[in-house]
Amino acid sequence: GEGDLEMDYFFNKNESYFGAKTQLSGDIMMIFDNERNLFVIKSGESVIARQIDDVDSSSEIENIEDIYNDYTFKELPNKEFLGISCPGYEMENDENKFVVYIAPDVGVGFGSANGSKIVNMPKEMQTFSKKYEKGLMMYMEMENKLDAKKKDKSLTSMECIEFAEADSTIKIR
Q1: Is the CB of residue 67 less than 8 Å from the CB of residue 127?
Q2: Count H helices, E strands: the chain?
Q3: pTM for the complete prediction?
Q4: Taking phi first (over 0 means left), then psi (-120 to 50 degrees means alpha), and beta for anything else, what does residue 3 get?
């Protein structure tokens, strides 16, 4: 939809799971644990757990070069986000254009949690995230170029507006 949506992600430097919560979700917390194939929703005292479908190993990305066959890939000048100098990259083909900036070594991110598969990132971004497994995406812009003829282009952007360390415990049982 249109407009802004703030989402909090919760990462643990020592674990592969991560949590997510939005302003709109009230006390609902989602936890994604790819290592244990679990998706958990906690709302108040209620807990719902679902198994995540196993990713077929034959669908694993084995050759990075094959993924980028139809993409042009270029480095962008570093840009600062929250005081962190982040390398930038642009990937583009006939259908899509991605611009991303990564904080390379902050110790947490979707790559270390293998979360790019869970949050349904395009395979090009999954492969890219492996390069920065211990880094956090600070900015991403996705443009669906097939919708470019429309008055309002199909453009989605995400930006990290705060990165803070905090102690947090979510009790499930």
Answers
A1: yes
A2: 3, 10
A3: 0.70
A4: left
Type of residue numbered 168: S
Structural tokens at position 169: 């415990």
> Could you tell me which residues come within 8 angstroms of residue 47 by beta carbon, excluding any fewer than 6 positions away?
40, 41, 172, 173
In this predicted model, what pLDDT tens digit does every residue of 52-93 receive, in sequence order? 775 444 444 444 445 445 778 889 999 999 999 999 999 888
Q: Residue 13 corresponds to which tokens in the numbers above?
A: 């430097």
For the stretch 101-117, pLDDT in tens is 999 888 777 665 454 44
Alpha-carbon gap, residue 160 to 155, rounded angstroms: 17
Cross-strand pairs, 88: 76, 101
